[in-house]
Amino acid sequence: MVLSITLFSLGAFSQMRNISSDVINPLDKKIKAFMAVDTEFGLVLGRKPIPLSADGSGPQLYFVQDMLNLNQRLMTIYSLETAGDYEWILEDNAAENDMFFARSRFVSDKNRTKWKLLVDGSTVIFQNATTNAFLSIAEDGDIFPVNERSNASRWKLIRLL
Amino acid sequence: MLLTVLFSGTLFAQKEEFYVASLKQTTLLRGPKIYFEPLENRGDDSFVDVNQSLQELVDKRTQIAAESGAGNRLVLGGLFTKATGKETADVVISGYYKAESGSSRAEYALRETGQHIGNPIPYFEWRKTNYANLLVVLTFTYADGTIQQDSLWADESDLQRAGRKLMPVSDLEEIVTKQFKKAFYYQFNFIEMERRWIDFPTVRVKDKALKAEYKAAKDLIKSYQIVELGRLYKKLYEAENTDEAAIGLGLCYEILGNYPAAAALFEGRTDFHIKARMKKEVALYDYLKEIGANLNLIEL
């Protein structure tokens, strides 16, 4: 009994093995939710990106993993919705040549919702697996694709406990 | 004959529970006059009313002895009195305190662990820490100008963890408050009161008038009228000078807190249990004398 409590507490403090959530229902509290904060303007990525508030709150995301091959994994980036029945996923839309969160059932090309998470120091860069475009954000909160990695936004993933 | 022996035995031998006092720990109080000066608050806002709690302890310590038949006049009250001013006090209790509580947030840099495809992804955790702490320093300044101090540093905090509820600040404040109340309680309540069975011996009385009077002893013990009982035993002891009457009178003195009188009566007459008990009680009496407490000894 004592041993199990010790292991549990160590487990609670240890780092996550994987940041992706393995859930079907987004309202399941077991999902691993993150805030993605842009390091340049301090904007929090969401359906409507907003500046990080003083109390440290903002829109949250969660990731669901797909295996591309034995060397690379891809993530679907979901917006965490506390209300509503729809799933919103980040897409690089071909018709509009733009990036935004779209309702999952209206996305015709699911391959465009798969993202590579490239590590840059302690931040990550989102790159679309199909188009290879990088996600970037403007000061006004507009998100758009860029072709150069150097122009891509760097995101700090913050897990709120 | 046998019946008479049984009858007299059941009629007079009496056992009852009384409080027996002993010294729990030493105190920094010196008597008999105490002056309490409210402690200075060196913090902003306090979640615990330090001065009110200390004032209650001082008030209780300086209360007048309860006038009851069985009450231990020595230790139940009146050991200390309140001084009207600092100048007339034997000890001035003063000091300061600082209470802080709230919540802070810290960022922890982490990285995925274990076996997985690709580079481990870095992420951060924002962990909240709720905390409550209290510093209390009590200074005892004596009439001769010397100083002694007692202090408390209580610090409770809770770090947020995944999958576990963070303890609210109010709960932590409650824990600290309990620690504070416990810390200084024994500085003012340094006497331990323990319930013990006291066995009054049967006294064989030859005098007929006294024998009739002695029949009331059982009721006096049962109704805790120890002053009356003591007077009765004193009468028996002066009239017939038996060891049983001396022990009965000594027990009454002991219950009422006049330990020197009890010790003198028990001398050479009692068993080990009473001797062991008396050793503790005389030690308490000597200590009270040493710290200058009022010794309200009752004479029968």
Protein architecture, described:
The complex is a heterodimer of chains A (161) and B (300). By secondary structure, chain A is mostly beta strands. Chain A has one domain (18-159): Trefoil (Acidic Fibroblast Growth Factor, subunit A) (Trefoil). Chain A is built from 1 helix and 12 strands. Chain A has one helix at 2-13, and strands at residues 34-38, 43-44, 50-51, 61-67, 73-79, 88-93, 98-103, 114-120, 123-128, 134-137, 143-146, 155-160. In chain A, the strands form 4 sheets. In chain A, strands 4, 5, 6, 7, 8 and 9 form a 6-stranded antiparallel sheet that branches. In chain A, strand 5 (73-79) and strand 6 (88-93) form a beta hairpin. Chain A is globular, with a radius of gyration of 16 Å. In chain B, strand 6 (122-142) and strand 7 form a beta hairpin. Chain B has 2 domains: 11-22 and 193-290, Alpha Horseshoe (Serine Threonine Protein Phosphatase 5, Tetratricopeptide repeat); 27-189, Double Stranded RNA Binding Domain (2-Layer Sandwich). Chain B is of the alpha/beta class. Mean pLDDT of chain B is 87; it is low at 1-12. The longest helix of chain B is centred in the middle third of the chain and has 20 residues, at 169-188. In chain B, the strands form 2 sheets. In chain B, strands 2, 3, 4, 5, 6 and 7 form a 6-stranded mixed sheet that branches. Chain B contains 9 helices and 8 strands. At the A-B interface, helix 1 and strand 12 of A face strand 5 and strand 6 of B.
Question: What's a concise summary of this model?
Answer:
The complex is a heterodimer of chains A (161) and B (300). Chain A has 161 residues and is mainly beta.
